[in-house]
Fold these 4 entries.
Entry 1:
Amino acid sequence: MARRKKIYEGKAKILYEGPEPGTLVQYFKDDTTAFNAEKKDVIEGKGVLNNRLSEFFMKGLNEIGVPTHFIKRINMREQLVRSVEIIPLEVVVRNVAAGSISKRLGIAEGTPLPRPIVEFYYKDDALGDPLVTEEHIIAFGWATQQDMDDMVALALRVNDFISGIMMGVGIKLVDFKIEIGRIWDGDFMRLVVADEISPDSCRLWDMETGQKLDKDVFRRDLGNLADAYTEVAKRLGVLPNNATPMGKPTLIN
Ligand code: TMP
């Protein structure tokens, strides 16, 4: 059998050529990195969990009319997605101060923000993904003014949707990162949510105990990452309550 064509390999995922033009297969690895890959590990089962969780969020967004690249999950580790032209920005929305905003501005972690704050980081590993302003983004042609308005609107809708779902299961959405891509329909272009939405790219705190249920568990050595993600998946009903962290007995497609 011919080996399928690898289009791109990132730190946590691989993109393969899809079955139809304009599609890709997105494969979720168990590789886990932090601090621009200075810290690395392989966490068994993480890719399976993120595939399921990202499916859950992206499908929900599609259903409420927030466009995403997601088409369908294919198997335990793979999903079919639309091929997009990724805008080279990480779009971060914060509801509560944590991580880099706490460090940069000296705001204690856990301080609620007066309103959701949207930030943009230029995707460039060699530069360590620096924070950039709208001026930089437009001047350097990474996005237009219209794109900026659309990206902020998309990011805030994602924030409302995921915050609401998480609140329903006793989890606070502290912040998250999304990536946005362009899809061309002839001469028409629209922006869609791309990449993944998973505990790798969110901060999720238990509303009662404050327990961290996201990649900070790995970044800060707070315990077992797969257990934390399994807890999120169980609460959302993505995994049955009797699933093991690996989810082996229940995760057959
Ligand atoms: P930060 O506080 O480190 O800027 O992170 C903000 C949010 O973005 C947090 O939920 C983690 C997520 N994030 C990524 O998904 N990828 C990254 O490379 C970084 C730095 C943060």
Entry 2:
Amino acid sequence: MKLILLGPPGAGKGTQAANIVNAYEAVHISTGDIFRKNIKENTDLGKKAKEYMDKGLLVPDELVVELVADRLEQDDVKDGFLLDGFPRTVNQAQALDKVLESLNGKIYKVINIQVDKNNLVERAVGRRICKKCGATYHISFNPSKSEGICDVCEGELYQRTDDVEETVAKRIQVYLDETQPLIDYYTKSGTIVTINGDQDISKVFNDIKLALGSED
Ligand code: ADP
Ligand code: AMP
């Protein structure tokens, strides 16, 4: 399955991505994760991306599009992928259409996770991620069994440097200005399904499964 996850920062994209790739044939591609890996490894791309990410701004389209285009050409994603955090601008969506055309691929569904704006800051600020395996927790809504330690691999949990209130507020504004127009873009192509993200994590996943149907 070829899928896109759409939604504001803190909507639950990463959380649901983990569930979806477990149940369907799709490789998780998170542009945010790719940038964070590059920052950790101190690559040129990481250095450039960090300047924007620390301010809550989008990394320029030309840096992101090339990265995703290269990734989609790799063999492991030919039967399915789940794009998480890409596209984020209409420009990126148009570039993705071109890449897919050249690969003879077609998006099956765009899963749009909708969450009340008032809940987003608390979700992002309380997010904790495992340094080792990337599993996502929340200090109140989805806590690990032992504070600061991953349930899956016992790795150490950390807070993203952009998950602080001021930067999260900026990221939400950037989403409203630059990414929300994609809802219209994909409504026109008829591939979008909107999911109520203001429910328990398991209920959100149930609704996603209903929208996707059984594995094809
Ligand atoms: P995104 O990838 O869209 O930025 P995440 O999946 O990382 O969002 O989720 C943001 C935070 O909210 C995480 O701490 C996660 O545990 C928590 N979270 C995700 N889904 C829900 C939900 N349905 N209810 C409450 N908290 C949630
Ligand atoms: P995320 O992990 O999806 O929350 O993304 C974290 C940050 O990475 C964003 O605030 C942006 O600065 C950058 N980023 C991730 N994906 C994109 C994208 N498709 N376009 C531009 N910037 C991105």
Entry 3:
Amino acid sequence: MAEALALVRRDLGTSAVVLHTRTFSQGGFLGIGAKQIVEITAAHRKDVGRETRPSPARPPRTQPKPDRARSVPTPEPMAGDLIRRTYAAAAAELNRKNPPPADRPLRTPAASPPPAPPAPTAEPLADEMRAVKRMVQLMMRRQNEQGPTKPSHGMTDTLFDQYVSLIEREVAEELAEEVIDKVRQLLDADQMQDEARVRATVLKVLAKQIPTDAGAGKLEPTADGRPRTIALIGPTGVGKTTTIAKLAATFKLKLGEEVGLITMDTYRIAAVDQLQTYANIIGVPLHVVSRPDEMARAIRRCAGCGVILIDTAGRSQRDDASLDQLKEMVAAADPHEVHLVLSSTCSQPVLLDTVERFSKIPTDRIIFTKLDEAISFGVLLNVTRKVNKRLSYVTTGQEVPHKITPGRSAKLAALVMGDQNTS
Ligand code: GDP
């Protein structure tokens, strides 16, 4: 392979871009005495992206290599089609993002051979090539695993565009496939040609993947007659205290309920001060507790309230002892709802790690904070689906008491699909 690559560099220079490599055995008997052939398809960098289909600058070179007879699986026969299809989809997406001047016609995935696209700059081109590579790998793997009848087979261009869009927005592959499969079941062949209809159906199906808490923003009476007791847990800095203040203001000022506030933060004095300031402004009492018996006592003191909100700032998720203490404190409060607070600014691995670490404490709801600074809404969707907890609230800014709304699946689905103007 190294020898063959050196030949490519010799012929095409340092601007060579390798588009495809293949290693296979030729001749011999039962693998004995066979020659290993390395096949490389390469092009000049400037030529990449000029055509809908990556084509070699010259015929594939073969480099016989007599030693080490080894059988290497050949690529799927569909690979060429897949590359053409995914590359065309990616190119269409590029056109959408950077429309060419009016006098230059748009490329469409179906056109063959299309007119040359506007010369892309190196950065978007590299992104596109990465997207194409990922899509080709994904589709080939899926073909290997599931056979040719599933699920890309018969996919219309419109649907395929939506699939590419979901993958680009970091929606997990399995989830994107599931959504696309469901959309195909819902639409007939004619409807599938209608871009707006396909997109609306994708949105609807996506929204159904997000379980939400119907009780968020309201205060339903509890079955045991106690004040609805709500605890927020999560890593330091995700916005628990701010969210508690927003909830306290919402329940007190909008719903007119008596609110009891409890904080068990004894390590971060500033956090107690911060909540005390909010409590004073909103006009609700704050109880500071540091042991489970104090927690139980504070809960009893709030017996006349409509709702009790418990802040748990100051516990390190890296420290098992702290998490055990937190678990005891939460158990002493016997809350009706425990919300795990996650920051939208975190990556998927960090979010899942947080969920895992806090799984010691039973939770049934999640809150996403800092949606205004979110890295990827697709990631939020993946996490919500994976942890299978109801989305109760989302927060969208630092200001108290505003910037908090009950989690709505349609809104999150729209954000995943790139619509920032949802209300
Ligand atoms: P805690 O340690 O989990 O209690 O986090 P805090 O409530 O102290 O918040 C940590 C930081 O996040 C503060 O600077 C908050 O103003 C900020 N914050 C909280 N919620 C949001 C939000 O929805 N959006 C943004 N951008 N910042 C937020």
Entry 4:
Amino acid sequence: MILDGRALSQQRLEILKEKIQEAGISPHLATIIVGSDPGSRMYVRMKHKACEQVGIHSIGLELLESSLTDELIRRVRMLNEDPDIDGILIQLPLPVHIDSHQVLEAVSPAKDVDGFHTHNIGSLVAGMPGLTPCTPTGIMTILSDYHIPVAGAHAVVIGRSIDVGKPMASLLINADATVTVCHSKTSDLSYYTRHADIVISAAGRPKLITAGMIRPGATVIDVGINHVDGVLCGDVDFESVLEVAGAITPVPGGVGPMTIATLMENTYRAAMDACRPAQ
Ligand code: GUN
């Protein structure tokens, strides 16, 4: 079975559009992008387009590559204090001279729709309510909407980043999975993946996951975004793994659209918590 993230995200966005209308609220998202990286600009454009589709107002701040950490923090604080803004998204990666950690910590946890503030990360690990990172949350939605059992399953997460691997492991633990986290220093990766009911790869290495590494019938979620000879591909050797996996996400059209749909859902949640009526 191919897990169609594109179709699922469209369904979720349609449902969200109705919820926003029914709630009579007018959520506002602010995005910040620093520099002119074409990939980042494309992602931000897609986020604004999704906002338009569901009835979320969005504003985009575009700052020069040469902007400094303090300038960015000043902008974030202005958005924190702006009662019209429900969600703040800082597109990553930021230029290397900017202290990303300081900038992300400046975002008000209540408006942190990316779920990257340590307050929200702590809430996630503690199993408390809060805004959770969009990519791993979108993956949990794929698993639940396709009725893939998580409780009691052995999930192997490959990657330990703060935006995907670590929150993914926490969400799975909170959903009663048995979780193994592997990474670039793991020896004999296939030992772990062959014993997994669910494999989630966020390594950023094309063709890392091959058919021989997957238990027949297992679910394979590909978070990789790699460009090989100008072609977008994931971490999974899709054609061969499709033959053994019970379910698999394609790249593109799998996890990516769900990340954006989850960002919209997080913005809606932030707005509901702030309870701002439509004008
Ligand atoms: N860059 C790549 N993925 C993401 C994401 O999920 N959020 C943000 N803010 N930037 C990203």
